[in-house]
């Protein structure tokens, strides 16, 4: 929950905006606070927007947000939420890192939206905590920050840390806080104003189920896909997959072709290559390390399979992705 300034004082929150921050979770975090104030007829929350130099900040979609103060004049906020963009190579500059660590030493509650979880982790402020992050960063985050216990929940609250998966999950998290501090009725009223149809619990999962995402309806086939996703680095053979799910290999082949129009081997290989691509884009692991982490025994096998799937080599794909990231940050 948010840290209180005093029993009757408004809850104060500082939003730190990094360049090219993601606008959707930012709006979904701020607007429920505004609506809670409006519906209650009281100033329950006060907030300020902070940038490193006090200058307006351009969001990832090109919108520019005016800020209230520079980092040097930010002062001590009891609650800070880090808003950053979808940049897999987050760099926390010295002054920002020092400010966050100073706030932490004073007992501030520190939060992050989406990839902002990387921001806190890079500052060394998530060691020993539970946290969540947008699903596309789960694997690379786990590789880089093993001291953080990562979950797939839409938001996560652990003592004086709170993180969410980004997007609409930011609203779920803030509505949860409104309910904790000022009652479920107000949180529900705010939810109704935004026509979101309910407040998700923290434990709600980020992604659609395989049933919804892939159109798979057979429960045994769903079980096969789940097992494949948990055995990326050490892939299982088809006989083992069949034995674990209680179907014959022939039946498994037929189910895959009927419901996803791919063979089991082709589907499994694609899962592993998509995992590899995320690691290439989001980590500094070598091509060999990425290949091994994705279940390929040699660099040659990995590179050949990757090029067949994506039309470029792993190294070229990484250079292209990093080039676009650099343009976004420029």
Overview of this protein structure:
Helix content is 48%, strand content 13%. Helix 8 (219-229) packs across helix 9 and helix 11 packs across helix 12. The protein is an alpha/beta fold and 330 residues long. The strands form 3 sheets. A 7-stranded mixed β-sheet has the order 5-2-1-6-7-11-10, sandwiched between helices. The chain has a two-stranded antiparallel ribbon with strand order 3-4. A two-stranded parallel sheet has the order 8-9. It has 2 domains: 11-193, Rossmann fold; 210-329, Arc Repressor Mutant, subunit A (Orthogonal Bundle). The protein has helices at 23-40, 94-105, 116-122, 138-144, 169-182, 184-193, 210-214, 219-229, 238-245, 249-259, 264-282, 287-293, 299-310, 314-329; strands at 11-17, 45-51, 57-58, 64-65, 69-70, 79-83, 109-113, 130-132, 149-151, 155-158, 161-164.
What are the SSEs and their pairings?
Elements: E1 11-17, H1 23-40, E2 45-51, E3 57-58, E4 64-65, E5 69-70, E6 79-83, H2 94-105, E7 109-113, H3 116-122, E8 130-132, H4 138-144, E9 149-151, E10 155-158, E11 161-164, H5 169-182, H6 184-193, H7 210-214, H8 219-229, H9 238-245, H10 249-259, H11 264-282, H12 287-293, H13 299-310, H14 314-329
Parallel strand pairs: 1-2, 1-6, 2-5, 6-7, 7-11, 8-9
Antiparallel strand pairs: 3-4, 10-11
Helix pairs in contact: 1-5, 1-6, 5-6, 8-9, 11-12
